[in-house]
Amino acid sequence: MRTRKVGRQGLEVSALGLGCMGMSDFYGSRDEAESVATINLALDRGVTLLDTADMYGLGANEELVGRVVRTRREWVVVASKFGIVRGPDGKGRSVNGRPDYVRAACDASLRRTGLDIIDLYYQHRVDPDVPIEETVGAMAELVTAGKVKYLGLSEAAPETIRRAHAVHPITALQTEYSLWSRDPEEALLPTVRELGIGFVPYSPLGRGFLTGQIKTPEDLAADDTRRSHPRFQGEAFQRNLDLVGAIAAMAADKGCTPAQLALAWVLAQGDDVVPIPGTKRRSYLDDNLAALDITLTDSELARIDEVLPPGAASGTRYPMATMASVNQ
Fold it and tell me: Which of 87, 89, 85, 43 is closest to 65 using CA atoms?
């Protein structure tokens, strides 16, 4: 397994990580035994970065990851996130970046995972009511206390990143990035590269859409939250499906799957980019990892840019209410 450096503080992980969210929440039915098998297989294959958050499954995902990792802790990098607060029933959400909450959230994550330190701790969403300097200041205290190794931000704007980095070195920025979500190229990627911050794209497969496995909205379970996303609805769905058809055609020419082509493209965007595709099934995991063996030529990359330029996808990447929580 090839590795990549994340930031300038010494963190090095597998070139492809594993997003664990869907194992516990949001994407339909759950199978804990298969999820455990998938995490273990990922570790067997050399994946060293596992991504979770306190709000996934209302803590259940951290517990799941922790149970597996505790048996193989010496080389696994666990990333978790705080800041999105959900109601006890999982409905409704708010953002909290107050220092006292930062400390309490970290302690709760440590209890759930059963770990004595979180390797990479992200602020999941920026709290507009709390200066970022106060939030990151509290996060820095966690590093001093030995509860956290490295700090990260998720869905933060360039100016917010600069202010945060001035308080304490930020190791990683986690933001949605894929062939149909290329917004970070405009300002975020130049900013993190200037500051020496690693870039960790989540949803590099467009929440599964870019795999070509989703043909109609009915392919999603009734309780799958993607049904509420504009890109998975109405005319936008069909227009986006046409884009996936173009990806599939290019993948066929390359002799790989659409998912592998989409991941190979993200990996080709720089050695400081570490995608974390999520899956809860072993079969999809092996398909994703095979992308590491695919090299795209300059002409192939140019063709992809021609077919899927920035802004090609139809619909916003989240419902409008959720987009409001993204730091712009």
Answer: 43
